[in-house]
Structures are given as structure tokens and as C-alpha cells.
Amino acid sequence: MNNLEKTTTRMATIAELLGFLWKKKQWWLLPIVISLLMLGILLTLASSSPLGTFMYTIF
Hints:
The chain is 68% helix and 0% strand. By secondary structure, the protein is an all-alpha fold. It starts with a helix and ends in a 12-residue tail after the last helix.
């Protein structure tokens, strides 16, 4: 499985989750989901770059 397929699979999962929240009208979950996604992206970028050692100052 190449990187493009992995990315589209992840995006499809996120789109499905947001579609579920839209359909069920559970707007209060959107800030939680968005903050978890941002934290996940931040941790992924920090672990794959030399800036990861400086992440301790943020947390």
C-alpha cells in the first residue's frame, strides 16, 4: 500500500466521521474532534522531524 492510498483511506475515515456528526447533529463534538486531529498532526510532525526535541517546551 503506497502513501497515496494510505492518505486517501485516512481522509475517507475523517470524512465519514464528520458526515456522521453532521447527520446526527452532534455539533458539540466538532471542537473535540478538531483538537484531537490537530494534536495528532502535531505529534506526527514532531516525531518525524528534528524539532521533536523542542516539543517538550510546548507541553
